From TrEMBL:
Its EC number is 1.8.1.8. PANTHER family: THIOREDOXIN, THIOREDOXIN DOMAIN-CONTAINING PROTEIN. Pfam families: C1_2, Thioredoxin_8. Gene3D superfamilies: Glutaredoxin. This is protein-disulfide reductase. The keyword Iron-sulfur does not apply. It is an enzyme of class 1 (oxidoreductase). It catalyses: [protein]-dithiol + NAD(+) = [protein]-disulfide + NADH + H(+); [protein]-dithiol + NADP(+) = [protein]-disulfide + NADPH + H(+). Residues 10-159, 319-480 form the Thioredoxin domain. It comes from Stylosanthes scabra.
Length: 570
């Protein structure tokens, strides 16, 4: 909790018995008493800290804007481990610092303000009271506009943002107080007013992020086709790269517009649109209102057929997709031109036509991925058990995300099933079709060729081979069986391994705190302690106690009387 009630005396806070000054990066000394009556930011940072190095330029920009016109000063409190590192880092800062040699004051400030991570910016008002310890977040979100960083000012900014959302226009999104233009790829200024009345795509991207690298050519193709058709469509790039070289690389050789490098809106717009993924293509309609928060996936799948990105268009595309799903066959998803096969061991080609009529599991995975390696033995075990019952019922196809042929060969070598060849172009299509955003992922294709589920990995984890053929009906059967089994158990019990009562609880997967093995479906669970016991672990203990009670009853019949933990001869 922020200590807003205490007014800190600046002189005693920042000085020591032998020092009444702070220093600048040129060695000049500044009396601490000159800071009285100013708003102060205590900046806890270190040169070895990557997030600190990225944040410092933002703070410099805010400092430059506020220090000249307001009573505001920043004091650097170092976390550097040697004086050379301190001096090198401090040389980039226009404010004051506590000398590196005064480790006692530095330590006491960290303790006083409970600094547990850096960068940290503690803001004090003119009376020395803590305004906030969340200065870093405030600077990130609002910049110099947040000055003097009070809760009232932050609330005012948030209300202004909400008002801007309600009355959103293209100008309110793209223009600022100091800029009413965007840039063309050749650096010319294009007035934001020239874009009004058009459908505008805001393209959030990074030139070093592989999904953006792959998406940009597809967006370029769609953009050029729409322009050729005479559609009133424009793109404004929002580059999220922090260095100018990457910015230049991102805007060269593309025909659309861009915000200027390091423009303040580049920091604000991701928050405004609640950006959660890259690439993101936000669509602003002709009226300046947001039509869609991200159509990148739609552009990848449908190209210009998704234009103009309206709800009606997406409803139309949804119906088309449903029709495709209904008519889907195994060959329609696994055959592409001459690529009409998968491979077995030693690269032997297996025609896709030979797999028609089987349940197929598409296994998206990679050797470099620890969760993939952990899941593989479970999948192999289920595969063998299913094949033992019906050798022709199931096949698995490995779809690799490995980075080289050797890694693919090594991982595939431990698998008893088929695969797409390494680097096969069908992988990109399948990843896009099934929206593969993480691995391992297991997609079940039924004997009809239609998609049964994209959650087959979870089903293998929960039910093993019993999940076959992975249909909704089969899963309901398994759940009904589990429910019936659980009816015979006590709903609550006490166990010697845990102090609290344990309750029968539905749990997808967990690690038993009794035997350290994975459990699924049901647990005897303590929510307060997040403590799990397998039913078998919990009930074995109970059964042994029941046996003891039965023996006690027998002994009582033989003239023994049991009271608590002691039995005596009557």
């Amino acid at each position: 909790m922020e200590d807003v009630a205490v007014a800190h005396d600046v002189l005693s806070l920042l000085s020591s018995p032998h020092r009444d000054f702070l220093i600048r990066n040129n060695g000049d000394q500044v009396k601490i008493e000159s800071l009285k009556g100013k708003n102060i930011g205590l900046y806890f940072s270190g040169s070895w800290c990557g997030p600190c190095r990225r944040f410092t330029p933002n703070l410099v920009e805010v400092y430059d804007e506020t220090s000249s016109k307001a009573e505001f000063e920043v004091v650097f409190v170092t976390s550097d481990r040697d004086e050379d590192s301190f001096k090198g880092y401090f040389s980039k800062m226009p404010w004051l610092a506590i000398p590196f040699s005064d480790s006692e004051t530095i330590s006491s400030l960290k303790k006083l303000f409970q600094v547990r991570g850096i960068p940290s910016l503690v803001l004090l008002d003119q009376a020395g009271q803590v305004v906030t310890k969340s200065g870093v977040m405030i600077i990130h979100e609002h910049g110099a506009e947040a000055y003097p960083f009070t809760s009232e000012r932050i609330q005012q900014l948030q209300e202004e943002e909400e008002e801007a959302r309600r009355n959103q226009t293209l100008r309110s999104i793209l223009a600022s107080r100091s800029r009413d233009f965007v840039l063309s790829s050749d650096g010319k200024k294009v007035a934001v007013s020239e874009l009004e009345g058009k459908v505008v795509g805001l393209y959030f991207y990074s030139v070093v992020y592989e999904p953006c690298v792959e998406f940009t050519p597809k967006l370029l193709e769609a953009y050029e086709k729409l322009r050729q058709k005479g559609e009133s469509f424009e793109i404004v790039a929002i580059p999220l790269d922090s260095d100018e070289e990457s910015f230049k690389k991102g805007v060269e050789n593309v025909p659309w517009l861009s915000l200027p490098f390091k423009d303040k809106s580049i920091d604000k717009l991701p928050r405004y649109f609640e950006l959660s993924a890259l690439p993101t293509l936000v669509i602003i309609g002709e009226d300046g209102k947001t039509l869609h928060s991200n159509v990148a996936e739609a552009v990848e799948e449908h190209g210009i057929a998704a234009y103009p990105f309206t709800p009606d268009k997406f409803a139309e595309l949804s119906e088309i997709e449903k029709a495709k799903e209904e008519s889907q066959t195994l060959e329609s998803i696994l055959v592409s031109g001459e690529h009409d096969f998968v491979i077995g061991k030693d690269g032997v080609k297996v025609p896709v036509s030979e797999l028609v009529g089987k349940t197929i599991l598409l296994y998206f995975s990679a050797h470099w991925c620890p969760p993939c390696r952990a899941f593989l033995p479970k999948l192999i075990d289920a595969y063998h058990k299913i094949k033992e019952k019906d050798n022709n019922a199931l096949e698995v196809i490995f779809i690799s995300s490995d980075r080289d042929q050797d890694s693919f060969d090594k991982f595939f070598g431990g698998m008893p099933w088929l695969a797409l060849p390494f680097g096969d172009s069908r992988k990109a299509f399948l990843s896009r079709k099934f929206k593969v955003s993480g691995i391992p992922m297991l997609v079940a294709i039924g004997s009809s060729g239609r998609t049964v589920t994209k959650e087959a990995r979870d089903l293998i984890d929960l039910h093993g081979a019993d999940a076959y053929p992975f249909t909704e009906e089969r899963i309901k059967e398994l759940e009904a069986e589990e429910e019936e089994t659980a009816k015979a158990w006590p709903q609550k019990l006490k166990h010697e391994s845990h102090e609290h009562e344990l309750v029968v609880t539905r749990r997808r997967t967990y690690v038993c705190d009794g035997c350290d093995e994975q459990g699924r479906a049901w647990s005897f669970y303590c929510a307060e302690c997040d403590f799990d016991l397998h039913p078998k672990c919990a009930l074995e203990n109970k059964e042994s106690k029941d046996d003891d009670e039965a023996k006690n009853e027998d002994k009582a019949k033989d003239g023994w009387v049991c009271d608590g933990e002691v039995c005596t001869k009557a």
